[in-house]
Design a protein that fits this description.
This protein has 163 residues and is α/β, with parallel strands linked by helices. The protein contains seven helices and five strands. Helices cover 49% and strands 14% of the residues.
Length: 163
């Protein structure tokens, strides 16, 4: 099973993803680790990425998911995956993909982003992310106002029911 944990910056994708991967004993990947350095530099400078900027990143994520599926493995991927086309690109030809949308309002996302340290995504880019967000259809949706452990447990229960 391939799980794409998606949402805007500050939604808790990495935190919840690590908890979920630990609980299930599955590998965890953070899509941020797959960005080319030029993308990271742009975001660090407060410049929103374009779809052209994202193309090599999405290609790398697709390769990761396709390789995992071919190997018959389970994977948790934390990834913003904000647009439908991004999700489709990453999962093209990959069986058993489940999208989990961590949904939160802008004020909570902004607060969480302001509190975190060491991340390249500045708070000032949040609105550009929300502007392109296309909420997924048919996804498992979890609101982010619960503790991360409770969210991971909710996802696990729903995935087991889906699998």
């Amino acid at each position: 099973m391939i799980v794409i944990l998606m949402g805007a910056p500050g939604a808790g994708k990495t935190t919840v993803g690590r908890l979920l991967a630990h609980d299930l004993g599955w590998p965890f990947y953070d899509a941020d680790d797959f960005h080319p350095s030029a993308n990271v530099d742009k975001m660090r400078a407060g410049i929103p990425l374009t779809d052209d900027d994202r193309a090599p990143w999405l290609d790398a994520l697709h390769a990761l998911l396709a390789d995992a599926a071919r190997a018959g493995g389970n994977v948790i991927l934390a990834c913003s995956a904000l647009k439908r086309t991004y999700r489709e690109h990453m999962s093209a030809g990959v069986p058993d993909v489940h999208v989990v949308y961590l949904r939160g309002d802008a004020s909570l996302l902004r607060l969480r982003m302001a509190r975190r340290s060491g991340h390249f995504m500045p708070v000032k880019l949040l609105q550009s992310q929300l502007d392109i967000l296309e909420e997924p259809e048919g996804a498992i949706v979890c609101d982010i106002d619960a503790p991360p452990e409770a969210i991971a447990e909710q996802i696990k229960e729903r995935l087991i029911g889906a699998g």
